[in-house]
Amino acid sequence: MDVVNQLVAQGQFTVLKQPLGFIKILQWIFAIFAFSTCGSYSGMFKMSVECKNRTESDLGIEVEFEYPFRLHQVYFDSPTCKGGHKERLFLVGDYSSSAEFFVTIAVFSFLYSMAALSAYCFVLEKYRENCKGAQIDFVVSAVFAFMWLVCSCAWAKGLSDVKTATDPERVITLITACDEEETRCHEVHEPKVSGLNTSVAFGFINLILWIGNLWFVFKETGWMAAISGTYVPSQEKQPAPDAFAQGGYAQQDPYAGSQGGYQPEYGQQGYNEEGGYSQGYEQQPQPTSFANQM
């Protein structure tokens, strides 16, 4: 607890109120929504096959499927309407590549957003030192923005194919018994894919967030100032002089120096304590008396 309290005490949480940190929080949240709505999905649809002989019919054929949507591995048993025999049928298609790609990008976005927020709050000085941290952040953010564009488009196309492959009316065409005129086949329950539709929406929202975040990270890189010719590397920057010293203005003698400088006081000609005559210039902190010459 002492370590946690110390980190919290040293944290600079005001950056979370700024666009740089606030957008990272939104990226972190919407990344969770994206991979949770897609990766935790499980759906089901139901069909009915009514044979001429009612004892051979199956009025509740349930077909369940889930992430990562390897539908060619999903099977169900359907009546043949011929002596009570059943046939095993498989759905068509494997859409795991686009779904897993989408979830992977969402998970890595979640992890990177969390790491970036930690850097903003606890090591902001090192992040801005020489602008190296901001430049790395910009490059990584640009990569994530591009990857969100690719994975969102790929998953939108994959979801469209999943809807087609799990449409009960389309699956009914795979049942051989439904080709007979005396057999009645129809859908009973369609799969609910509203969660998957939401995952695609979250994907494009993440794309907008990461593209928008590029501008605020770019301003931290110093590249804009370097292009305009006003950027000075941090190691060459000098600290600003104090405007006021304690008790008043800080005063410096512009002519003071270690060698060859102007000396404000001159020694006087006179006799020293041993009776000798001293002649020349002497630097004294404050003249208190003058020697009298007879």
From TrEMBL:
Biased composition (Low complexity): 261-286
Pfam families, per the entry: MARVEL (PF01284)
One GO term describing the cellular component: synaptic vesicle membrane
Compartments it resides in: Membrane
Annotated spans, Disordered: 242-294
Keywords carried by this UniProt record: Glycoprotein, Membrane, Transmembrane, Transmembrane helix
Domain MARVEL: 15-222
Transmembrane annotation, as ranges: 25-44, 101-124, 136-157, 200-218
PROSITE patterns for the chain: MARVEL
Cross-referenced InterPro entries: Marvel (IPR008253), Synaptophysin/porin (IPR001285)
Membrane topology recorded in Swiss-Prot or TrEMBL: Multi-pass membrane protein
Family under the similarity heading: Belongs to the synaptophysin/synaptobrevin family.
Annotated protein name in UniProt: MARVEL domain-containing protein
UniProt source species: Zoarces viviparus (Viviparous eelpout)
